[in-house]
């Protein structure tokens, strides 16, 4: 094993200090709550539209929780890799939400939310039904994602740098 590989393995093998683990745990919980709040708004939208969210969409939506939950698991296990996963989680989550809701889906897998919020404001026909309306609350609960997730991502990155420096 090369010196660099030994150093990387040593970094990943050791446990994090409790204060860093607590910070990363807090960040992952904040990201999970932010996603839950946003999902709650989609439930509100669906109820207002009379739209029934299919089970396949519920299952697909679980993907947005993967990185924050892995971050939480790794942090609770004291693994330094939690810092990197958390740093990626906040950026990935923010980008995913903003791209989907501002540009629409490129995959067509997101039910009525295949359409951008801009299209939904005007009104769309999906599976033979007409849906219209994205109110101020929905916009706020979209943009709260970067407001909460990006600072958590940055904080996780700072914790990664602390770990690398051995502090």
Task: Report what the structure shows.
With 167 residues, the chain is mainly alpha-helical. 72% of the residues lie in helices and 4% in strands. It contains 7 helices and 2 strands. The chain has helices at residues 3-13, 18-49, 55-61, 66-76, 81-103, 117-122, 136-165; strands at 124-126, 129-131. A two-stranded antiparallel sheet has the order 1-2. The longest helix has 32 residues, at 18-49. It is elongated and about 60 Å long. The two termini are 26 Å apart. 30% of the residues are buried. The mean pLDDT is 94.
Runs in which pLDDT lies below 50 for 5 or more consecutive residues are: none
Query: Based on DSSP secondary structure assignment, what is the total number of beta strands?
Result: 2
Task: Tell me what portion of residues adopts beta-strand conformation.
Answer: under 5%
Radius of gyration, rounded?
A: 19 Å
Helicity level, as a percent range? over 70%
Shape descriptor reads elongated
| Helix/strand/pairing category | mainly alpha
